[in-house]
Design brief:
- The complex is a heterodimer.
- Chain A is mainly alpha-helical.
- Chain A is 75% helix and 2% strand.
- Chain A has helices spanning 16-38, 47-54, 60-94, 102-105, 107-121, 125-147, 154-178, 181-192, 200-219, 221-227, 231-236, 241-263, 269-281, 288-308, 317-338; strands spanning 2-5, 11-14.
- The two termini of chain A are 30 Å apart.
- In chain B, helix 4 packs antiparallel against helix 5 and helix 5 (145-158) runs parallel beside helix 6.
- Chain B is an alpha/beta fold.
- In chain B, strand 11 (243-247) and strand 12 form a beta hairpin.
- Chains A and B meet through strand 2, helix 10 and helix 11 of A and helix 2, strand 6 and helix 5 of B.
């Protein structure tokens, strides 16, 4: 623990290990970002070229490649990764359930339902993003309506969420069978989660939501750590538990929905990033900042792999996160089993 | 004692979902007392404590703290006056004793006031008072039951509240650890705090309490000094148990000896 105190009575406290993890992740993000913007494809650029272009000294072709193709894709990847990881960290902490994530609760499926409705009925990219956001929010409201009267806590929310997810998966299957062949292909690509062709139109709304929800998340961050002690202990210590839970879950639902709208339901990032962050920091609690950075690194790295893994053929990023995230989860469970912890 | 006590409940109707536990219940917690609530299982004693600690909102009636409805006061302000050791709480994976105890400082902290010199001093004191200072860096989930309970009490102490409520602090502990926790409570009471505890053991209640509240079926049967109110009739009425009362050979407080229901078993050879 490190403490900084000022004569005015202000004091800040942080864990050295958590600070190191945050610094490390931020540096990794920067390096990956340079690789993503500079790298590969039909027009490789050195880091120096990238920096020159970013500061306004590039050729028109370079300006276009960086400013309109690679940079917005990178920013979308960073923002989607951070948003999903934050949503996952908040949900896991609030529900005191390590498997809590937007996928398990049906938020992602709700976003997919919204998107599929637009695919079947026809509509542009922006309509699709709007409908996906609305779908995720509607799923969240449905869960709140069913469980809300008794408080948005614990196992009941998970069970209701699993039910909502199952129903929506059925609805989504039905919508897919109703789609024309071309539309179905587009729908399946969206359902896998992909960053292909993502531009500022996807990145900016997501950045806006991230900017708006960050103060709320970190403002309630200490309250969130306290609720992990149980509702009674948290209330006794003066945490406004009901208000904090509503605000935090609302923000998580919004982040997950907007992230899904931007890149499709990219799997496993929301579930894996908070786990990974906790293992790195070894700190109890939601580890919000570390989770967000780990999520951003994960998604940018996964997108680099998706673009480069198979020569001449790009994979959707959701395939990579699914394979890597799934493998990590299996390894984690096996490691815990060996360590004798459930 | 003059005027109203700092903590009390008036006309409380307490319920979970559709099950009503108590109706029209009124209690006072005398200032400076070590009040113990006793009664059979499901009589509403823990429910009453939850209502007093504002973790359960009464369906009707008011819990008064310093003369005002406790639910109308800011949550953090209440938490600087009134602490609670809940019956069940969760220690997050890998949290250390020092980290747990320092969380008791929550109502005294803020976004830009995360760890004052006062916080540091109070946490160290609370750990010393409860005898967990040497366990500071140990994970809570590796402690014994008695040590864990003392760590949770230390967290409640770190709130630095003049009133402290304890919901069954001795349940799940063996008898040596029960006495250890109760002695700690008695010490905290001597230091000037007002304590309210829910206990199962009548003998321990009579030994440690300065004020006893006996409950049955959601109402208060009697209350007062345990040396006066603990009688064979009361135990019969509250628990339905025929018994004799003798003086505790150590303290002279009432000791409940259940009546024998069959001839004594003679020792075998």
């Amino acid at each position: 623990m490190s403490v900084l105190r000022t004569p005015g009575g202000l004091s800040l406290r942080w864990r050295r290990r958590s600070a190191a993890v945050v610094t490390g992740c931020a540096s990794a993000t920067l390096l990956l970002a340079l690789a993503a913007v500079g790298g590969g494809g039909d027009h490789p650029m050195s880091p120096a070229d990238v920096l020159r272009t970013l500061t306004g000294g590039g050729s028109p072709a370079e300006e276009f490649i960086v400013g309109e193709l690679r940079l917005p894709r990178l920013v979308t990847a960073l923002a989607v990764g951070a948003a999903l990881a934050l949503a996952g960290a908040v949900v896991q902490s609030l529900l005191r359930n390590p498997l809590g994530s937007p996928d398990v609760l049906g938020l992602t499926q709700g976003a997919a339902t919204g998107a599929l409705v637009v695919v079947v009925l026809g509509g542009g990219t922006l309509t699709l993003a709007g409908a996906a956001t609305a779908g995720g929010l509607a799923a969240g409201l449905l869960i709140a309506a069913v469980t809300g009267r008794r408080g948005l806590a614990g196992a009941r929310v998970v069970l209701v969420g699993i039910g909502v997810a199952a129903i929506l998966t059925g609805v989504n299957g039905w919508l897919l069978t109703r789609a024309q062949l071309m539309d179905a292909a587009r729908a399946v690509l969206w359902l896998t989660g992909s960053l292909d062709g993502r531009g500022w139109a996807q990145a900016l709304p997501l950045l806006g939501v991230l900017a708006a929800s960050t103060p709320l998340l970190f403002g309630y961050g200490r309250a969130l750590s306290m609720t992990e002690l149980g509702d009674e202990a948290a209330i006794a210590a003066g945490v406004p538990v009901r208000r904090a839970r509503r605000a935090l879950l609302g923000a998580a639902v919004l982040l997950a929905s907007v992230a899904a709208a931007a890149a499709g339901p990219v799997s496993f990032v929301a579930l894996t990033a908070p786990h990974l962050a906790r293992r790195l920091t070894r700190a109890p609690g939601p580890n919000l900042l570390a989770s967000a950075l780990v999520g951003a690194v994960l998604l940018v790295a996964a997108d680099l792999v998706a673009q480069r893994a198979v020569e001449g053929r790009q994979l959707p990023v959701g395939v990579v996160t699914g394979v890597l995230g799934g493998a990590y989860l299996v390894w984690l469970l096996a490691a815990q089993r060996r360590a004798g912890r459930s | 004692m003059s005027g109203n006590p700092r903590l009390g409940g008036v006309g409380l109707t307490l319920a979970y979902e559709r099950r009503i536990v108590a109706e029209g219940l009124s209690v006072d917690v005398p200032d400076g007392s070590f009040t113990v609530v006793i009664g059979p299982n499901a009589c509403g004693k823990s429910t009453l404590l939850r209502a007093l600690a504002r973790t359960l909102r009464p369906r009707a009636g008011t819990v008064l703290l310093d003369g005002r409805d406790i639910h109308s006061l800011p949550s953090r302000a209440v938490a600087r006056t009134l602490g609670l050791l809940p019956q069940s709480s969760v220690a997050p994976d890998g949290i250390t004793v020092a980290d747990l105890v320092s969380r008791g400082r929550y109502p005294h902290q803020g976004l830009l006031r995360q760890w004052s010199a006062e916080d540091e001093r109070v946490v160290a004191e609370s750990m010393a008072d409860t005898g967990v200072a040497e366990l500071a860096d140990r994970p809570v989930d590796e402690l014994s039951g008695g040590q864990r309970q003392r760590a949770w009490i230390a967290m409640a102490l770190a709130q630095r509240t003049p009133l402290l409520l304890l919901d069954e602090p001795t349940t799940w502990l063996d008898i040596a650890h029960q006495v250890e926790v109760l002695e700690l409570c008695a010490r905290l009471h001597e230091q000037g705090r007002t304590l309210v505890a829910v206990l199962h053991d009548l003998h321990q209640a009579a030994r440690y309490a300065t004020h006893l509240i006996a409950m049955r079926d959601g109402r208060v049967v009697t209350s007062g000094d345990p040396r006066e109110v603990v009688t064979a009739d009361l135990v019969q009425e509250v628990f339905g148990l025929p018994c004799r009362i003798v003086a505790d050979p150590e303290t002279g407080t009432p000791l409940v000896v259940p009546a024998a229901r069959r001839p004594a078993i003679s020792p075998r050879r």
